[in-house]
Specification:
The protein is an alpha/beta fold and 337 residues long. It is built from 13 helices and ten strands. The N and C termini lie far apart (80 Å).
């Protein structure tokens, strides 16, 4: 009996030694071998918006791509409410093991925390994994507005301070902040007319009741294509494939560095293991390089724009600084209604 126990112990020790020797030869440690198992069960991507919204379409494209690449089912889970803050908060409070992720977006993470108290800390409670794309904003006017391009627009509005109006989807909305940043960069004095959503805002620009707005390409470009709106500029510094033929505001209006959009990216809770983050970042790079994913983004009015974790983090900080400056200079407070 003692010999049998001795033999079993010897075989176990030899097995461990064998794994250690093989692992050492390949540059693995026993800890790395256990970590390499990720993912070994289904992954959930929380989408904090309703089905059909841009973040939802992007998040689902990412889930499909990850299912193919990682060999595990990746589920898209809509958890909408409070302008994206409910689903976003649920991920902040999840275990940082890589099995609950977030289709993050600018509204609940770059804008809301600057204007109101949130249940999460946008800078401390999340791990930025990779940015996937940007929703550009397009400066549009009614075709009857008496300008042919952005230079004439700037000259006319600047020459008539307080005369012209601009619409937004709501006080403190990303569209409002982008418009205020545009106005401030050019010294334009116009009257803000807030609405409850982009549809009513655009309706009044279409009708000529409000003079201009900067709204997403997804919302504006269908009207531009059918001639019901005139596009004067797009908010991304190098122009956008989802607003073909529309000049970059940075160039056309001579505002070097003007580069604002509503971002979408993959995030997780703070404290995720490095190997998990690296695995997911690599998967995101491959997903965003595929024609299938890029086509989904472009059809949704999103500019595919991959940024790895560190670059994504730097972009988030740059955006936060820009929006903080706009909010302070214009004394923007969230609409209580």
């Amino acid at each position: 009996m003692k010999n049998n126990e001795h033999n079993r112990t010897r075989r176990s020790l030899l097995g461990v030694a064998g794994v250690s020797l093989v692992g050492g030869a390949l540059g693995w440690s026993p800890a790395a071998l256990s970590q390499a198992a990720y993912p070994n069960k289904p992954i959930k991507i929380v989408i904090p918006w309703p089905p059909g919204q841009a973040t939802d379409l992007a998040g689902r494209a990412i889930a499909v791509g990850m299912t193919k690449l990682l060999g595990q089912t990746v589920i898209a889970d809509n958890k909408a409410g409070a302008g994206g803050m409910i689903g976003t908060d649920s991920v902040a409070k999840s275990a940082p093991d890589g099995y609950t992720l977030l289709a993050g977006s600018s509204g609940p993470l770059s804008v809301a925390p600057l204007l109101q108290k949130t249940a999460y800390d946008a800078q401390k409670d999340f791990t930025p994994i990779a940015m996937a794309g940007l929703s550009p904003y397009v400066l549009v006017v009614n075709p009857k507005f008496p300008v042919k391009d952005i230079k004439e627009f700037i000259a006319l509005v600047k020459a008539n301070p307080g005369k012209y109006t601009f619409a937004s989807s709501g006080t403190g909305a990303t569209a409002h902040l982008v418009a205020e940043a545009f106005n401030a960069a050019l010294g334009l004095n116009a009257v803000h007319v807030p609405y409850k959503g982009s549809s009513p805002a655009l309706s009044d620009v279409l009708a000529g009741r409000v003079d201009y707005c900067l709204e997403t390409a997804a919302a504006t470009m269908p009207f531009v294509r059918d001639g019901r709106l005139k596009a004067l500029g797009v908010s991304l510094e190098k122009g956008s494939i989802v607003a073909p033929g529309v000049p970059a505001i940075a160039t056309a209006a001579n505002i070097p560095g003007f580069n604002l959009g509503a971002w979408i990216g993959l995030m997780g809770p703070a404290g995720m293991p490095k190997n998990v983050v690296v695995t997911l970042e690599k998967a995101m790079r491959e997903i965003m390089a595929t024609k299938e994913s890029r086509d989904v983004f472009e059809r949704s009015g999103l500019e595919p724009q991959f940024r790895e974790g560190s670059d994504f983090l730097a972009y988030l900080e740059s955006t936060r600084v820009q929006f903080t400056d706009v909010i302070k200079k214009n004394n923007i407070k969230i609409d209580p209604t």
